[in-house]
Amino acid sequence: MNYELYYWPTIQGRGEFVRLAFEEAGCGYVDVARQPGRGSGIPRLMRFLSGQESGELPFAPPFLKAGRRVIAQTANILLFVGARHGLAPQAEYGRLWTHQLQLTIADLVDEVHDTHHPIAASLYYEEQKREARRRAQDFRDSRLPKYLGYFERVLERNKGRRGWLVGSQLTYADLSLFQVLAGLEYAFPRAMRRLSRRHRRITALRQAVEERPRIAAYLHSQRRVPFSEAGIFRHYPQLDAQ
């Protein structure tokens, strides 16, 4: 199947969760908005969003064109890709459990975004600094430990006992947790240094994903866009204060 991924070309964002799945699975895919030439790039992405390219109308990127299918929402895309490329269990309950973990990761990603945009995404960070400081403090002190503790317990209770979230094999949920941990360490290095001492299993999972051959090759390639203050995970020192 030919895969076309549609996402903003200059940031990792939510599209990176899908890229990691494709890279680990060794799937060929086209990152459409990054392609030069007529019929590609941002103009084609915008044509899809306006409904000019397909009868299916996604709300926002990322979305995936797989043959005649157009699939939107990160967790939904991963549910589709994971089942077809060995990144999810074959049994129905295992697939649902993996999807459930991915939806929890999506909740965490939303809360990370809201640390620097607590009032409105349409406003610049500089227009909501005071509110961002308050939101980030609550995130560091309350919400982040709760999420990390949850995934630590999931790893501890997994009967597969191989360091993955589901069973004994890596799934797309492991790749997504890796991405979140990498982003959190970029955005909140001081908080993550403090919290990592209490969450050794998720730290080990991050290292295990990072060392997988295809992921390692991707992380060291030019295809991997670096973190920046334009994406979801942003490093503002005042939001990482003790």
Helix content: 40-55%
- Assembly state (oligomeric): single chain
Biggest sheet, strands in spatial order? Answer: 2-1-3-4
The helix count comes to 9
Q: What structural category characterises the helix and strand content?
A: alpha+beta
What separation lies between the terminal Cα atoms? 49 Å
CATH architecture term of the largest domain: Up-down Bundle
Radius of gyration: 18 Å
Largest sheet: 4 strands, mixed
Average pLDDT confidence is: 94
Q: In one word, what is the shape? A: globular
Low-confidence stretches: none
Total separate domains? 2
Number of strand segments: 4
Strand content: 5-15%
The level-1 CATH class of the largest domain:
Mainly Alpha
Q: How are the elements arranged and paired?
A:
Layout: E1 3-6, H1 15-25, E2 29-31, H2 41-49, E3 63-66, E4 69-72, H3 74-84, H4 92-116, H5 129-157, H6 172-187, H7 189-196, H8 200-210, H9 213-219
Parallel strand pairs: 1-2
Antiparallel strand pairs: 1-3, 3-4
Helix pairs in contact: 1-3, 1-6, 1-9, 3-4, 4-5, 4-6, 6-7, 6-8
